[in-house]
Amino acid sequence: MLSSTAKNLYWMGRYLHRAKNTARVLESTQRMALQSGASEAGTVADIYALRTEFFARHPQGTLDDLVDFMTLDDTNPSSLVSTVRAARNNARAERNNLTVDVWESLNALWLDVATQTRLPRAAVDRGALLEMVTKQTTMIAGATQSTLLRDDAYCFLQIGSYLERADNTTRVLDVKFHRLCPDGDPQHGSADYYEWSEILACVGAVRTYRRIYRSRIEPTRVAELMVLRRDLPRSVHHCLWQVDLSMRELAETYGTRGEADRQAGALHAHVRYARIEDVFEAGLRPYLEDLGLRMAQLSDEIGRQFLFE
């Protein structure tokens, strides 16, 4: 496979999941604002490392400002309009590696988002836009799983998708957990049910938590679910497991292994054998920051090994 093809598919996966993750986070933040009246605009900007840029353009820093900044702001590379456009452009270059179902679903998403950008800002229903992006990216993911050939093109798409998902889960947990527990000790933080439910909602795991633990929401278990449970599709463990599996598939296809393969296996093992008690004893924030750094290093190494970046 050409490195340019692998690169397009890898970044298509990353941008699609970035759009979906952003829509989920904004939806849950809006729900929380309706329940508590508190604005978490700065907190959400921190998740995407965009606090400086956000407050430079919106000094008031209201929730409405944040939603506009993260949805329709064309100058923000992490906004929905920017990420959906980037995913669609990468997909357009690789239409021969995608099925009609995947391409048409993604192209329809872009056309819907682009339509919103041409309307006066006051006329845009941002709640409906977020719901539409969430639903259509889920539909694209379904089309990907049910129609794509399981070849190296599929593997690169999966690697990008799951790395982006793991990175998002790590960022959400780090920022929101430490807002509720500033010293990192779950015994000293807020016990508000709705605030902890909002964190779980960012990864679509409120009902999953109840099904697994059958108890009130506890901060330690929230962290365990989002990081260490392999059976939760959006947990860090599950995502790194899938990245490792896809890397192994590529190694069998190409008959060679490199540094990226080693890093993927080591990172998966690091999470697979971790215990939540040890994570909190060492500090949740240092643990999550280390995960984020190692995932960034893995992405860079994948770029060097396969994408010629």
What's the tally of helices?
15
Arithmetic mean pLDDT:
92
- SS-based class: mainly alpha
**Sheet bearing the most strands, described?**
none
Helix content: over 70%
How far apart lie the N and C ends?
A: 15 Å
Question: Can you describe this structure?
Answer:
This protein has 309 residues and is mostly helical. It folds into two domains: 1-148, no CATH class; 150-309, no CATH class. Helices cover 74% and strands 0% of the residues. The chain is built from 15 helices and no strands. Helix 1 (3-36) packs antiparallel against helix 5 and helix 8 (152-180) runs antiparallel to helix 15. The relative contact order is 0.12. It comes from Vineibacter terrae. Residues 1-307 form the DUF403 domain.
Provide keyphrases for this structure.
2 domains, 0% strand, single chain, globular, 15 helices, mainly alpha, 309 residues
Topology:
Blueprint (H helix, E strand, L loop, with lengths): L2 H34 L4 H7 L3 H7 L5 H9 L8 H14 L6 H18 L8 H22 L4 H29 L12 H9 L4 H8 L5 H9 L8 H19 L4 H14 L3 H7 L1 H24 L2
